[in-house]
Amino acid sequence: MTPPLITADFVVRHAGELVTCGAPATATAGTDDAALGIIEDGALAAADGRIVWVGRDADLAAAVALAPAATTLDARGRVVMPGVVECHTHAVFGGDRAGEFQMRVRGWSYQEIAAAGGGIMSTVLATRAASREELFERGRLHLDRLLRYGATTVEVKSGYGLTLEDELRILEIYRDLAEVVSQTLVPTLLGAHTVPAEYRGDPYGYVDLVVNEMIPRAADRGLARFCDVFVEEGAFTLEQARRVLEAGVAHGLRPKAHVDQLTGGGGAELAAAVGAVSADHLDHVSDAGIAALAAAGVTAVLLPGAVFFLGASEYAPARRLIDAGVRVALSTDFNPGTCYTENVFLMGTIASMQMKMTAPEVILALTLNAAHAIGLADEVGSLEPGKRADILILDTTDHLTIPYHWGINPVATVIKDGKVVA
Ligand code: NIG
Ligand code: FE
Predict the structure, then answer these.
(1) Phi, psi (5° rounding) for residue 70?
(2) Atom 3, ligand 1: which residue's CA is nearest?
(3) Which of 113, 194, 230, 284 has the most ligand 1 atoms within 8 A of CB, as the residue to mutate?
(4) What is the four-CA torsion angle of 148, 365, 178, 8, rounded to 10 degrees?
(5) DSSP assignment, residue 231?
(6) 1-10, 252-261, 278-287 — which is least confidently predicted?
(7) pLDDT (tens digit per residue) in 128-156
(8) Structural domains in the chain plus CATH codes
(9) Atom 12 of ligand 1 has which residue's CA nearest to it?
(10) Ligand 1 in contact with 258 (CB < 6 A)?
(11) What is the CA angle 372-378-379, rounded to 5?
């Protein structure tokens, strides 16, 4: 007896390599091609925006019936992979820091610029001064560019308002942007990004504001899914960060944290202790921090573009993290200060050369592992039945060229929820 046909309204055929990122999905997710679940001359079918069938093209006709007005795309032998999950961005802000970039070229450090009143605070002032429309249009521009680089899901942080009203305003802009952009947006409250100038002498007063007002209001209004904090000299101490993250948990916001970026000091351990979904940066993480992340199952989000753009030399120890069993994701950290690029694939090349991540590790880090970093691994990040039909057709026939052909945009077609969007 022949099995009943699955009906589909969207099909991709003849993927030379259908990179599913599916089957194995172990915690470390493997360093070689086997981890990618590649199907040669593969095909994929979707219905109502969800994947319903994945397999060899030769088996498609026997398994899938096409609905009358179905869309069929021929990948003509090229690579087909899951939409990129951009799991760490600061996409809404006012102004830019091109002038500060030149100061860095002339030898100032990121910390020196911040201590002189620039850095995050200069973007905060520009953001507060910008109108809602300006911030919305600017955010849309950056998200559209991220889409063309293949990002079909994007985590977006507040953190350039640093007053109750300005933080909520940024989160509202993300809520409104979600209505017009093609991606799924996943909002994070980063009220504890830095202590704003007006609270310099009273950091605990600012933490009170975050804990007692920002977190409850953002959570009650459903404006954020995660709560993030920047643990660093000049930003927040471990103790302050713990208060913020625990307050977030109490209001249903899962913790994330910027830790061990410019200096090391127990941030990864804190992320593990509070049950964070991810610990981000980790350029200076200690062995104890790595062990804590592994034991607690916290995803490490590595942001090598920020190290590169700061002209720093210490990259996160990706190999040691992977060897310890930590799931590793990659992201741009898109923001005007430490990584002003939407080219998420470029992160794969930097990760290859500076952190010795293999091509399969890079591809998993941009997709399935990044989905874990935002709690969406059941929805996106791999090409498997049941997941959203978020799919990229690349301009290449070999997945090994993804980190190798660098600085370019390898994406030919972007499909979101079973529809071509770019
Ligand atoms: O992730 N580290 C803290 N926050 C950002 C930088 C923000 C900025 O410089 O504007 C980051 O690198
Ligand atoms: Fe960041």
Answers:
(1) -65, 150
(2) 230
(3) 230
(4) 80
(5) B
(6) 1-10
(7) 999 999 999 999 999 999 999 999 999 99
(8) 6-82+382-420 (2.30.40.10), 84-372 (3.20.20.140)
(9) 338
(10) yes
(11) 100
